[in-house]
């Protein structure tokens, strides 16, 4: 997207203000004590619910509290603990490799920089943005499937590549709003603007939404 026009910024602000009304306080439902915990919880949250992850992480971190501990863990033992989050073999491999990488290159300390976070094994831009915004309070926009779909339907972007969407949203909103933008779009996508059956009748953004396939229209 080229530099947004004043009208595009105004429209984006109206949309965010309505979402703020609907979700005044919003943060990740993942439970964590520190950036390391959140990093692992976010990796485990792929293809499952945050509630499922929250049932597993206390056991995981009780047994292997630090990156050093997890890096040295027996994969079969870890698999048993993370089993209920699904894709347990792959997730076990990912979090052990991540722990080892963090120990080797960052002395076990999670970096608070997007460019460094994405160099860690198994950490993509979305995971890195969640950790930055939530655990460090550094402005970042995480683009997941909900953010992608909802921002498209609302024409906050016309891009399909997550990184380009992220930059479109960054350009539309001031930094202080970045974190709240993704968390609210995610929640709204889960509750209202569903992938297959969006609840367009009564949607608080219907008058701002050019999506051609609105339900009930
Ligand atoms: S009107 Fe429908 S498609 Fe548009 S934002 Fe609302 S729920 Fe989503």
Description:
The protein is an all-alpha fold. It folds into two domains: 6-26 and 141-208, Helix-hairpin-Helix base-excision DNA repair enzymes (C-terminal) (Endonuclease Iii, domain 2, Orthogonal Bundle), CATH 1.10.1670.10; 35-135, Hypothetical protein, domain 2 (Endonuclease III, domain 1). The chain has eleven helices and no strands. It has helices at 6-22, 35-44, 50-63, 67-71, 75-82, 88-106, 114-117, 125-135, 145-153, 162-172, 178-191. α2 crosses α3 (50-63), α2 (35-44) packs antiparallel against α8 and α9 (145-153) crosses α11 (178-191). The chain is elongated. 35% of the residues are buried. The mean pLDDT is 95. Residues 153-154, 192-193, 198-200, 203, 205-206, 209, 211, 214 line the site of iron/sulfur cluster (SF4).
Q: Any idea of the CATH topology of the largest domain?
A: Endonuclease III, domain 1
Bulk shape:
elongated
Q: Characterize the main sheet.
A: none
CATH architecture of the largest domain: Orthogonal Bundle
Helix-strand makeup class: mainly alpha
Q: What would CATH call the homologous superfamily of the largest domain?
A: Hypothetical protein, domain 2
Per DSSP E runs of 2 or more residues, the count of β-strands stands at: 0
Q: Spell out which ligands are present.
A: iron/sulfur cluster
């Amino acid at each position: 997207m080229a530099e947004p026009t004043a009208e595009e910024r105004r429209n984006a602000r109206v949309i965010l203000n309505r979402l703020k009304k609907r979700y005044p306080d919003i943060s990740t439902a993942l439970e964590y004590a520190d950036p390391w915990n959140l990093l692992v919880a976010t990796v485990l949250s792929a293809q499952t619910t945050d509630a499922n992850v929250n049932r597993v992480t206390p056991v995981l971190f009780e047994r292997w509290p630090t990156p050093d501990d997890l890096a040295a863990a027996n994969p079969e033992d870890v698999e048993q603990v993370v089993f209920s989050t699904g894709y347990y073999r792959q997730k076990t491999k990912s979090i052990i490799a991540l722990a080892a990488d963090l120990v080797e290159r960052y002395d076990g300390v999670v970096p608070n920089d997007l460019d460094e976070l994405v160099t860690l094994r198994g950490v993509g831009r979305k995971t890195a943005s969640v950790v930055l915004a939530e655990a460090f309070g550094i402005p970042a926009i995480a683009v997941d499937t909900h953010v992608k779909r909802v921002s498209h339907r609302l024409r906050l972007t016309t891009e399909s590549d997550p990184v380009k969407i992220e930059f479109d949203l960054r350009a539309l909103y001031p930094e202080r709003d970045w974190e709240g933008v993704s968390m609210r779009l995610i929640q709204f996508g889960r509750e209202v603007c569903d992938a297959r059956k969006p609840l367009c009748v009564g949607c608080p953004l219907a008058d701002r939404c050019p999506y051609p396939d609105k339900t009930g229209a």
